[in-house]
Specification:
alpha/beta, Rossmann fold, seven-stranded parallel β-sheet, two-stranded parallel sheet, globular, binds NADP nicotinamide-adenine-dinucleotide phosphate, binds guanosine-5'-diphosphate-alpha-D-mannose
Length: 324
């Protein structure tokens, strides 16, 4: 029997790389949308040893015709739309680009699917940032949204477009409302990786301090490797739907720092400096997800604790910084 074929936008990102590995391990042919850059964006695929197993197609989420060609070339039965300008902080500096890529990019991808193969199953990378100024202490699929950044607003547009294409055209389009998930492949601009990289540099004598913004913010952090399985599970269901994917535990940035520094025998209070430069114009103070529906319907549960995750990231950064 012919292998199933999947198309991933954002294949060079953290989740894209883990998802590509996950699908390759299941025997899929994996195609990835590759937005050309002047810098090396393939390091994550290399890290996982799959650079040569993913077929990269030159395209961009803002370019509908190139997405149509990706659908034609890949003959994908499953489409995972993970591409985005995903850094919340930058979305105030580049609100229009964020809207075009993270918002309109979703409808471009939905249109490409609709035009080439309406029966392909579609996954949209929605986010807990849509809850923003939280309306309930624990957020579930029925919690009202209140985004707090241009990124959150763009994602909300993409989320409702996905729901709308499902309801209007009968497409198998699902939206995963994922809470923060991290790994050694996390971009350095996000707070967990910024911290674990700094811990390694400070421990190895290459950095003196770590400048952070609001360390009282709370997040529900899980491991990206666990979360890509939830994406795949959503597309294996008979009926498309929306699911919150989270651990159900929330922790402050401060406590995450404590865990990371203490792993190498240091006290975070000796190194962390608060720098208002990293405060955001509007903050999401706390996020806490209720993954009960995913557990019940998908049989999915987070299997990595925050402590295990942070130790994994610190160890990977210690090894990487030592090699430099
Ligand atoms: P990431 O590491 O920042 O990856 C983003 C990906 O999008 C990269 O491959 C990037 O390509 C690509 N991209 C950027 N602009 C593009 C464009 N114009 N056309 C096509 N591709 C473009 O993000 P991630 O952490 O893997 O997250 C994956 C998705 O889940 C994103 O949509 C994110 O918003 C969403 N999400 C993430 C989390 C989380 O905690 N990680 C939680 C909820 C939702 P380059 O490498 O070439 O820049
Ligand atoms: N990045 C960063 N840098 N964040 C900091 C810093 C700092 O120096 N200091 C404090 N923080 C706080 C932020 O203000 C925020 O409250 C929290 O740490 C987490 O910030 P990020 O790691 O940048 O992640 P995020 O929660 O804003 O967004 C991530 O998760 C979303 C899901 O909730 C991204 O992956 C989004 O793409 C994703 O949708």
């Amino acid at each position: 029997m012919k292998n199933k074929s999947a198309l991933i936008t954002g294949v060079t990102g953290q989740d894209g790389a883990y998802l590509a590995k996950h699908l390759l391990d299941k025997g899929y042919s994996v195609f990835g949308v590759h937005a050309r850059r002047s810098t090396d964006t393939l390091w994550r695929l290399r890290y996982l040893g799959i650079e040569d197993q993913v077929t990269l197609l030159s395209s961009d989420l803002t370019d509908l015709s190139s997405l149509v060609r990706c659908m034609e070339t890949s003959q994908a039965q499953e489409v995972y739309n993970l591409g985005a300008q995903s850094f919340v902080g930058s979305s105030w500096d580049q609100p229009i680009l964020t809207s075009n890529v993270t918002g309109t990019g979703v409808v471009n991808m939905l249109e490409a699917v609709r035009m080439v193969n309406k029966d392909a199953r579609f996954y949209q990378a929605s986010t807990s940032e849509m809850f923003g100024l939280i309306q309930e202490p624990m957020q579930s699929e029925s919690t009202p949204f209140y985004p707090r950044s241009p990124y959150g607003v763009a994602k909300l547009f993409g989320h409702w477009m996905t729901v709308n294409y499902r309801e209007s055209f009968g497409m198998h389009a699902s939206s995963g409302i994922l809470f923060n998930h991290e790994s050694p492949l996390r971009g350095i601009e996000f707070v967990t990786r910024k911290v674990t990289d700094a811990v390694a540099r400070i421990k190895l004598g290459k950095q003196k301090e770590l400048r952070l913004g609001n360390i009282d913010a709370k997040r529900d952090w899980g491991f990206a490797g666990d979360y890509v399985d939830a994406m795949w599970l959503m597309l294996q269901q008979d009926v498309a739907d929306d699911y919150v994917i989270a651990t159900g535990v929330t922790t402050t940035v401060r406590d995450m720092c404590r865990i990371a520094f203490s792993h190498v025998g240091l006290n975070y209070e000796d190194y962390v400096v608060i720098d208002p430069k990293f405060y955001r114009p509007a903050e999401v103070d706390v996020l806490l997800g209720n993954p009960a529906k995913a557990q019940k319907q998908l049989g999915w549960k987070a299997s990595t604790s925050l402590e295990q995750l942070i130790l994994m990231m610190v160890d990977a950064d210690m090894a990487r910084v030592a090699r430099e």
